[in-house]
Amino acid sequence: MRATLARKRNWVGAAWTIRPGRIPSTPMAPFAHLDRSDYALAPELQAQLLSPSLVVFLDQVRANIRRVIECAGGKPDRWRVHLKTTKIPAVWDELLSAGVRHFKCATVREAAELLALLDERGITGDVLLAYPLVGPGLEYLGRLAVAHGSQRVSVLCEDEERIGSIPTELEIFIDLNSGMDRTGVPVADRETILACARAAQGRLAGLHHYDGHLHDADLDLRRQEIFEGYDRLVALVGYLKTQGVEVDEVITAGTPAFLSALEYAPLRELEGARHRVSPGTVVFHDARSQVENPGLGLAPAAFVFSRVVSQPCRGQITLDAGSKALAAEAGDPAAHALGHPEWTALSPSEEHLPVDLGNGPAPERGSTCLLIPRHVCPTVNLAEQALLVESDGSHSVVRVSARAHDLFAPG
Questions:
Q1: Which residue from 358, 352, 361, 354 is spatially nearest to 317, judged by alpha carbons?
Q2: How crowded is the C-beta side of 298, counted as CA atoms within 13 Å?
Q3: Residue 1 scores a pLDDT above 70
Q4: How far apart are CA 334 and CA 63, in angstroms?
Q5: Could you tell me the residue ranges of all domains in the chain?
Q6: 102, 149, 257, 386: least buried by Cβ within 10 Å?
């Protein structure tokens, strides 16, 4: 059957397009080493839990946070953690407990939820909305900065002429295009960067250099490409200094690049500037990150709880977690089933996830499993609630309150 399915792939442009139910081109089992007993759910809890649903194991969250801080030399101050992955204030509490005080987020809703949590905990924090906001969203962020006056709030900017439209309560990071060609000023365009820095005047918080496009499977090649980008970045900081512009902070590196960033000594040794890395996926971890950083020693902490709903043909089952419960934009397999390395998730449809069983036995209809997402960040965004589980089996239900977007800014 596997060969038959493979022959039915369609060639579109320069990439394979795999229809729902088709087998992925690169099946993997990156979590075959995991022990299912570390992720136990009581039978009575499973019997009541609707599926599909988001389940987060807090001990694994804490272990991942400790591991990242360990990689940063035991200094939580070197980590400006991106909150786009986690979206749950109860999980952010674990970061606060570990001493993390610097944050990135992607949406105004995430910023609002974090600022409220910081005030509630009596903690002074620093949040960068790492997006080139325009329109009412920018105005709303400015109002949030006023309402949470003890917190430091900043935003990205790439255009000297737009700096005047940024509310004065917000500090400014100049967004650099590191070669990803998504947002930002090209690092080589020193004239524009200098103009932005001067226009920002006393509100310049630093430089933002996201290099998420550098995730080559060859770790040595990836490190070389990352270091070449940082050579240009450090030279830029030096140039700005000669022009009378002091850079207080340099932010780099999402999950694929952060280990190399921490290893790159010239960033660590910048005179007068603080370097911080900004991975966020690391808190929950996922299959894509396991492949990108295989030796990092993180554990998946966020799962989609699912049930077998059909046995449509020999050697195949269907789970009830389709693309409305699991992010599918990162390719197939969209998830890996904990404790079943022989299973291969096929391409999902909206409410169904077909699974090739390999040589394994067919589970009964109604059987449950935990799915590790290929890409956890948008998977979390699909859930309205999450089940938080402690190692002793106790649990709580929380809203994923920083998911999605507001339609209008609150009064």
A1: 354
A2: 30
A3: no
A4: 24
A5: 30-56+289-399, 80-278
A6: 149
Nearest CA to 55 out of 403, 380, 336 is that of 380
d(CA 248, CA 240): 12
Tell me, rounded to whole angstroms, the distance of Cα 367 from its chain centroid.
30
CB-count exposure of residue 353 (10 Å: 0-12, 13-18, 19+): buried
> Counting beta carbons within 10 angstroms of the beta carbon of residue 7, is it exposed (0 to 12), middle (13 to 18) or buried (19 or more)?
exposed
Coil, strand or helix at 138 = helix
pLDDT exceeds 80 at position 5 = no
What residues contact residue 238 under an 8 Å CB cut-off, 6+ apart? none
- Residue of 108, 115, 151, 146 lying closest to 130 (CA atoms): 108
The hierarchical CATH code for the domain 80-278 is: 3.20.20.10
- In the prediction, which pLDDT does 214 show? 80
Q: Which amino acid is at 84?
A: K
For the segment 129-142, what is each residue's pLDDT rounded down to a tens digit? 999 999 999 999 99
Give dist(CA 367, CA 230) in Å, integer: 49
* Cα gap 30→287, rounded to integer Å: 7
Cis check for the bond before 52: say yes or no (omega within 30 of 0).
yes
Residues 175 and 200: their CA atoms lie apart, in Å, by: 13
Judged on CB neighbours under 10 Å (0-12, 13-18, 19+), 115 is: buried
CATH of 30-56+289-399, one of 2.40.160.60, 2.60.120.10, 3.40.50.300, 2.40.37.20: 2.40.37.20
Closest CA to 335 of 289, 382, 284, 372: 372
Give the burial class of 203: count Cβ atoms within 10 A of its Cβ; 0-12 exposed, 13-18 middle, 19 or more buried. middle
- End-to-end CA distance of the chain: give it in Å, rounded: 58
User: Which residues have C-beta within 8 Å of that of residue 114, sequence separation ≥ 6?
Assistant: 83, 89, 92, 103, 105, 125, 127, 402
What is the distance between the alpha carbons of residues 57 and 303, in angstroms, rounded to a whole number? 8
The contacts of residue 344 (CB under 8 Å, 6+ apart) are 23, 24, 27, 333, 355, 356, 358
| Whether 157 contacts 173, CB under 8 Å | yes
